[in-house]
Every structure is written in structure tokens, then in C-alpha cells.
Amino acid sequence: xxxxxxxxxxxxxxxxxxxxxxxxxxxxxxxxxxxxxxxxxxxxxxxxxxxxxxxxxxxxxxxxxxxxxxxxxxxxxxxxxxxxxxxxxxxxxxxxxxxxxxxxxxxxxxxxxxxxxxxxxxxxxxxxxxxxxxxxxxxxxxxxxxxxxxxxxxxxxxxxxxxxxxxxxxxxxxxxxxxxxxxxxxxxxxxxxxxxxxxxxxxxxxxxxxxxxxxxxxxxxxxxxxxxxxxxxxxxxxxxxxxxxxxxxxxxxxxxxxxxxxxxxxxxxxxxxxxxxxxxxxxxxxxxxxxxxxxxxxxxxxxxxxxxxxxxxxxxxxxxxxxxxxxxxxxxxxxxxxxxxxxxxxxxxxxxxxxxxxxxxxxxxxxxxxxxxxxxxxxxxxxxxxxxxxxxxxxxxxxxxxxxxx
Length: 406
Hints:
By secondary structure, this protein is an alpha+beta fold. It is built from eleven helices and 16 strands. Strands 2-1-16-15-14-13-12-11 form an eight-stranded antiparallel beta sheet, with helices on both faces. It has a three-stranded antiparallel beta sheet with strand order 5-10-6. α2 (89-101) packs across α7. The radius of gyration is 22 Å and the shape is globular.
């Protein structure tokens, strides 16, 4: 009997050791493959990236390349804060969902209930959930002829045209149309329902419970420690990669920095590109380390309940084939409440969001079934982010960390 118990214990120990060995070997393989990928795309004296991949609480890979600021030559680290642009939107929808959990609103409520100054009856048809899932039909009619307005606009100014708006692009809930000012509208609803400023609500109810210590909404009057600047490669800009709302003329582009490969870089964030001053749609600056804490808080239901989170990650409107918006208009893609949902056949469901503004590119994806998260923040916009993420995903599949489905 004693011998049998000993054999059983030894068998368990052997199995655990084997699993640990397999995991270590998988992680080592991932490190070698991703190091090679990053080395092929980034240099250490140019704007670059921070990448963090985790499975639950375990870091599978963490690596940084390049410099955060071409003037100071400060190296990018896991604590360097980048503008995450539209990834910010999931924090805004989380605020709304938190208020619903507390019984202070319902996402089935109409916008008219909270914005009585909006004159048209169209707002009785537009529900909060339509704003959250990019299917409200509300057009973006912000004036784009005033350069200063575009460069320095704040959230409240984004709502001014809505007061007299009397026509929607389509029936709410019927089509996907990716819009930014509808998220400033969500922030105003948070403010009116909670009774405190939107940024204050976010810090108290979302950032602090998530142990996000390096997160900030951009404010030009406040210095952000360890902040990366965004840059564009001038030769790439000449090929037409400037944002459609850019206030830059290609004839005005002058090099601010030349790296060891001869690439010319120009700073391209607040004051050079539009909409850096708005908060609810794209104003967050944070680091990959902080974002990992955010993902942990979601995983462990520290901010939202499990059932609420599952609804947020659920497809609510089909993105693929939309005639109204090209943004992430890819096959098998839908939009949830602040997250895209990729249901590519034979692969795990991927819940993700991208962010683009000025010289910044950002990507944050989770595979809920496997518990894997991929967080990549860049302060340059000249590389094909989606192609790189597909390569990273394949590396994780090959290592057995993300499973293929039959």
C-alpha cells in the first residue's frame, strides 16, 4: 500500500515536471522566434515598440526595441507610456457597463434620456448600446476646416454639432460605422450619471482597482513621466501614409532625426496631428506593463462581473463587408462593446482592438479560451501591424499556446 502511494506521488511529480518542461521549452521557442521578428523590423536607434505576451499571470515574452524620444535618446522599456489611441474606447465602455452594474443606467436607455438639449427625435431611437457597438448611425459632422480646432479640440467641443443634428446615416443597430465622437457622448453620459468628472470616475473605478499606476489621459498642461513621442518616417509619409485628417502638408515635412539606417523621422503627435486632446475616444497613454495589469483585472473580474464582461466580448454588429467604414473591416469580424471580435474559422476567438493616431500604432488582443494576451505599442506607424500580429499569432500556435480548432 505504501509503495503504491509512493509510486502515485512520484507519477504526479513526474507529470508536473514534464508539463513545466514543456511549458519552458515552449516559452523559449517563442522568445527566439519573436526576438528574430522584432530584430528584423526595428533598430535600437529609431522609434520602436514594446511587446508583452502573457498567459494569465505568467509573462511568456517581453521585449522592447528602439527609442521613446529622438531628442533625449531615452530607450523604450516596459514602463514607457505610449498613446494607445482607439484602444482607449474599451475603458469608456467599461465605465458605462460599471454604471449599469450599479443600477444607475441601462444600456437599453435612449440617448435622449440623458441629453435633453439634443433637439431632434432621432435621439429617442439611438440607445447607449448602439454608441458602444459602433452602430448608432450618428455621423461625424465635426468641422474639419479650422486647423486649430482640429489640433486642439477637447471632448466637449466634439458634441456641439449634435445639439442640432436631425438626421442619421442609417437605422440604429442596422450597420457598422466606426465613429469617434459617439464615445465623447458616452463620456458625457458617464459624467451626468455619476456626478463626477469623467477622468475622475475612470481613475477611481477602473484604473486604481486595476493597479494601473502609469496610466494617464493626455493633457498638454501636465507632463507625463516616461512618455514616448510618436514619429513618422518621412519617406513613407511622402508615399501617402498621413492620416486623412492631417493638418500637415507634405511639402512642410522636415526631418527632425536621422537614424543609423538613414531613415528620416519627424515628431507627429500633439500639435502635429489631430484629436490628441480628446480623452474618451483615444486619449489614454499607458505602458505594456500597466496594460497587463488591466488584462489581469478583467480576467479576475476586479472591475466587471463575469457575465458583464462576456456580453462586452460578444459580437453585436457585423463589421465585415460594411459599406460605411473601412476600419478593421476584415473577414469574420464583428464589434462588441469596445472590442472587436475575430471569429476566423478553425482558430480561437480573438477579442482585440487597434489604435492609430499620429505616429502611434497600438494593438491589444486576448484569446479568452487559452488565456493568452498580446500587447504591442509602437511610436512609429510605418510598419504593417496586422501582418506582424499574424506572425506572432502563428508563433504562439506553433508553440501550442493558442490552439487551432478542427
